Structures are given as structure tokens and as C-alpha cells.
Amino acid sequence: xxxxxxxxxxxxxxxxxxxxxxxxxxxxxxxxxxxxxxxxxxxxxxxxxxxxxxxxxxxxxxxxxxxxxxxxxxxxxxxxxxxxxxxxxxxxxxxxxxxxxxxxxxxxxxxxxxxxxxxxxxxxxxxxxxxxxxxxxxxxxxxxxxxxxxxxxxxxxxxxxxxxxxxxxxxxxxxxxxxxxxxxxxxxxxxxxxxxxxxxxxxxxxxxxxxxxxxxxxxxxxxxxxxxxxxxxxxxxxxxxxxxxxxxxxxxxxxxxxxxxxxxxxxxxxxxxxxxxxxxxxxxxxxxxxxxxxxxxxxxxxxxxxxxxxxxxxxxxxxxxxxxxxxxxxxxxxxxxxxxxxxxxxxxxxxxxxxxxxxxxxxxxxxxxx
Length: 370
Description:
single chain, alpha+beta, CATH 2.40.50, Transcription Regulator spoIIAA, 6-stranded antiparallel β-barrel, 10 helices, 34% helix, disordered C terminus
């Protein structure tokens, strides 16, 4: 598909904000933009809410077309890959799109607000403004899984259940119990924290031109991070619902000492025979696990499973990590076989995993036209 490189339009209403918006993008983020105009051959004028950008592309799209884009790289300028190319004259109407535009103005890393609250350089004033003591914050973070426990199947299951994907199912129980939002659920915790932030922030009275106080900037940043995290969780909830139980994507925060990291987990189920009732003996499972750690760098594990037969391919970026992984493959093989699995393929590959053959999640994601 076509790659677009974005540049803010100088004449945009808020060119500085558009540059900041570009700087906030993340690799893998999915969003929507509208083709506002085609000023010349090979040039597109794209709009996302109040932001306007120019892009060089020969994609056969006309004015008014809505493009679904995935951020593929960030430097030297943000590059976005077109993951849908609407047919000329085609109109796709989704009844949920209007609600998505209103509910999800942005996406963000799920662990971003957790990192902000644990960072002493950022949280000193935030905690006092929110009425949160350090002790209360520490108690909240004790519910996060320790990295040692994630190797245990029971602890991993609890971490997945607390990822926020299942929040709405717990809301039904609240209607009968009359209790507060459930504890141990990530989305519930983020919602409660967002409510605190909104209570302490004064109502917006328009742009006065004055620079806001540092305390307010920190609080506004935290609010944006919370809204982005909640948007991401909600999008994954919708993706799981629209996929009819065939794909699930989770963000699981975990602790190493006093630091918080996140592991991304995606599970896909594909029955071998189309239309057949899912059968564990006749079902292909694909699992992607990605984590970035200070010493190991970026690590991705791709697993294929059918019945007791499993294949595992590890992708690492750093040379020393590749050596470490290759030296430990025999231990991983023994561990998998000890759980009753038949290991078919087990290898470590240094380099980036090829994402071209991975299907893009089937949800509309972000459109800032609302």
C-alpha cells in the first residue's frame, strides 16, 4: 500500500498544535483522515479534525475520501501506510462510526498515565492536586502483576482479566450490587483517575493566549494520556466484539521492582474448516507477545498452536539479546514439553518481524472530524 509522509499546512488554524499532534503519534497507531483536496497531481491535502497536512501520494482517491492509516515510522517525518483504499464512488456506512468519532478523539499507550504517576519528576504536584498520597498510589499499583508471576498460568489469566477488556461485563454486576467501580480492573482504575483529574481542572474558557501554569500543563498532559489509554482499551473491546470472538488484543501492565512496563498480547483463532464449529483439535491459534525492556530492548514472540503442537519464533533487535535467547532455547523447549506440548519449531531471529502479512484489526479507530 502507499506510504504517506505528512507535513503540517502552514496556513492551518493551529500549525503549532498540528506539529505537536504529529509528534504525539506512535508506530502502529491507526487513525482516519479525510482527503480535503487534491491541489495537484500526486499531492493530497488531508484533514484530521482542526489539523491539516500535505502528503505526497499517487493513490487513486478523490476529494472527500476517508482513509484508514497506520503509522509505520516516525523519523525523519511521520510516515503512514494506507490500509484501506476505498473504491471510487463507494460509500461505507457504519452505524457506530458517529459514536466512535465522539468517544475516541485520540489513542495512546495504556501504561502512559501509570508511568506519569510513578515518575517522581512528574508526580510531585499531580498527586497533591488529585488528593492522592504516595501510600495510596503504591497500594493501587500493588494490584499490577509482578513479572515473575506472568510465567504462571493462573497469574497470567488474572492479568488478562484485569486488562480492562472485560470491564463492561463487570458493569452489569454493579447494577445489582450498587457498589463502586470494580477494583483490580485497569479500565475502571483509569476511569476513576480521569474523574479526579476532571474535578480539579477548571472549566475551559477558550484560548486566552497566556502560557498556562506548569501544574496545569502537567494535569492537562495526564488527562490526555488517560483519555488516550481509555480510547485504546475501548477500541480493543470493539475489535473483539466485531471479530465475533476470533481475535483479542490486550495491554497488560506489570512491575519490575518499582518500574512499570507493558506487554502487548494478541490472540487470534482461525478454525481450519470455514463455518465449522470451533474444535480445539481442529483450530489454529496465533499469539503475538511484544515487550520492550531496558536491558533486552524490543522482543516479540510469535506462537502458532494447534492441539498440543506448538511453534515459536522470537524476534529481537539487539545482538546481545539474540545471543542470550539462543543460549536459552533449550530451556524454553523443555518448559513447553513439560506442559505437554509438542514443539515443532523453536528459533530466535535477530531483526524486526515482518508485519506485512499481519491483518490489521477490523475497527475504524480514530477520526478527528467530530
